[in-house]
Amino acid sequence: AGLQSIPEDVMEAAEIDGASSSQRLFKVTIPMMMPSITICTFLTITNGFKLFDQNLALTGGAPMKQTEMLALNIYNTFYGRVGFEGVGQAKAVVFFILVVLIAALQQKMTKEKEVQQ
Question: Model-level pTM?
Answer without folding.
Answer: 0.69
